[in-house]
Amino acid sequence: MWSTSLLRTFSKSQRYIVDNGEELFSAPGYSRWDLLTQWQIADSMEVNLALFNVTDKNYWESNSVLGFAADNPTLPLLAEAGFSAVVSFNYSF
């Protein structure tokens, strides 16, 4: 038996933030596509495949960059991972 899901995640952009006259980084909004597939080989065996951020978009979770200056050089390092894939095999006994 097969099952497949295509998921889309939306996030609204963070509002403009200023602290003591200094402009802080405001995480822009984003949308992300994930593809999840499961194959039930037998009652006790299954294979899973997950493709995350299929379009390989750069985005930031607002909690990860809260309080950072807008010109902080480490901001690109705080972006979420681009495209990634996970394959797993499960066996129950």
TrEMBL record:
Keywords: Cell outer membrane, Membrane. Gene3D superfamilies: TonB-dependent receptor, beta-barrel domain. The keyword Membrane applies. InterPro entries: Beta-barrel_TonB_sf. It is found in: Cell outer membrane. This is TonB-dependent receptor-like beta-barrel domain-containing protein. It comes from Kangiella japonica. The lineage of its organism: Bacteria, Pseudomonadati, Pseudomonadota, Gammaproteobacteria, Kangiellales.
